[in-house]
Amino acid sequence: MEVTSKNRTKTTQRIIDALEDEISDMGWQGLRMNRIAEKANVSKTLIYRYFGNLDGLISHYLQLDRFFPVFTDQILAHIRPVEKSDLARIWYRQVIQTYRSFRSSKPARELLKATLFEHDPMADAISQTVDKELTRLVEQLSFIEGFDTKAISAVMLGGMSYLTIMAQNNRPVVGLDLRSEEGWKRIEDTIRLLYIAVNKLAIETDEIKLESQIDDQWS
After folding, report:
1. Are 35 and 22 in contact (CB under 8 A)?
2. What is the model's pLDDT at position 4?
3. Backbone phi, then psi, for 45, in 5-degree steps?
4. Distance (Å, whole) CA 157 – CA 96
5. Is-contact 176 187, C-beta < 8 A?
6. Counting CB atoms within 10 angstroms of each CB, which of 54, 133, 188, 197 has the fewest?
7. Are 198 and 152 in contact (CB under 8 A)?
């Protein structure tokens, strides 16, 4: 049983690697199960058995830490704020690091582009999984109650997704060259400033409270 489990893990890794190569080579719209199976040196039947269909395979890939960070309870315990003003740093670091990862990975950028397509079942499945994973990150790192962190995050993450896609298409936005490091430095500096302002508002407003488990650390 142990050998079978190890073999499945290795086989799954080959399939995921083959999928990633295909996304880089063909884009998400050019994905074909035949080519993925051939690159992974497995049968299509095996891929269907492991993942159900192509949508299931892509969904599995999107939930891996190579695309989105996976926070266990142990990891979350280490990134909890020590001071109330630490909230901004946690928020902007996560956004900046996530989108740096997207920009450095062609498969990630290709799948991010799919979220803009309408009336396409695969694009719908990709969009739903991307949104699910982004929502998970936001909920894990909110740390406050009485403040609409989801709406704030929708503005921040939606803007960063759009800018990343425009950079992929080699198009400027409001005159900023998103193909350059200087352009992205200006974007990231602004993200920091915006989250610092949000953090200041959050801790100075009486209606907004930090989660009880964090209050306990500061009591």
Report:
1. yes
2. 66
3. -60, -40
4. 10
5. yes
6. 197
7. yes
Report CA-CA distances (Å) from 158 to 11, 131, 153, 164.
Answer: 35, 10, 8, 10
Q: How far apart are CA 185 and CA 179, in angstroms?
A: 11
Dihedral (CA of 16, 21, 24, 29) sign? negative
Share of the chain above pLDDT 70, in %: 93
Residue in 25, 98, 11 with CA at minimum distance from that of residue 62: 98
Q: Which residues contact 40 (CB under 8 A, 6 or more apart)?
A: 11, 14, 15, 17, 18, 47
What is the distance between the alpha carbons of residues 38 and 12, in angstroms, rounded to a whole number? 14
Domains of the chain: 2-62 (1.10.10.60), 73-218 (no CATH)
The per-residue pLDDT for range 187-212, each reduced to its tens digit, is: 999 999 999 999 988 778 777 676 65
Whose CA is closest to 44, among 197, 117, 36, 5? 36
* pTM summary value: 0.84
The per-residue pLDDT for range 45-80, each reduced to its tens digit, is: 999 999 999 999 999 999 888 788 778 778 887 888
Q: Rounded to whole angstroms, what are the CA distances from 101 to 45, 68, 97, 125?
A: 32, 9, 6, 21
**CB-CB contact of 138 with 152 (8 Å):** no
